[in-house]
Amino acid sequence: MAEKGIFAGLPWWVTWVAVPVLVLVVFGSLIMSLLGFVIGLLFKALLLVALVAGLVFVVKKFTSSSSSKGDW
């Protein structure tokens, strides 16, 4: 428990307010860029799934309507 040794004599607000604020100031842009990358990747994956589902729907609709004519 090295954390208790480091923060043992400090007030509670240093541990729970000052340290997280410093982490966000130092690594905030990195965290935001990673978060933006993950959200963008999820959006692209959902877009891909929607496009593939739409393509399958359209192809099945046209192939079922053309096969019912009996021409093929």
Explain this structure.
- The chain is an all-alpha fold and 72 residues long.
- Helices cover 85% and strands 0% of the residues.
- It has two helices and no strands.
- It is rod-shaped and about 80 Å long.
- It starts with a helix and ends in a 5-residue tail after the last helix.
- The mean pLDDT is 88.
From the structure above, extract its key features.
2 helices; mainly alpha; rod-shaped; 72 residues; 85% helix; single chain
Question: Which term fits the overall shape?
Answer: rod-shaped
Structural class: mainly alpha
Number of strands: 0
Q: Unreliable segments (pLDDT under 50, ≥5 consecutive)?
A: none
Number of helices: 2
Rounded to an integer, what's the Rg over CA atoms? 27 Å
Transmembrane segments: 12-31, 37-59
InterPro entries: Uncharacterised_SCO3924
Keywords: Membrane, Transmembrane, Transmembrane helix
Pfam families: DUF5326
Helix/strand layout:
Layout: H1 2-6, H2 12-67
How is this structure best summarized?
This protein is mainly alpha-helical.
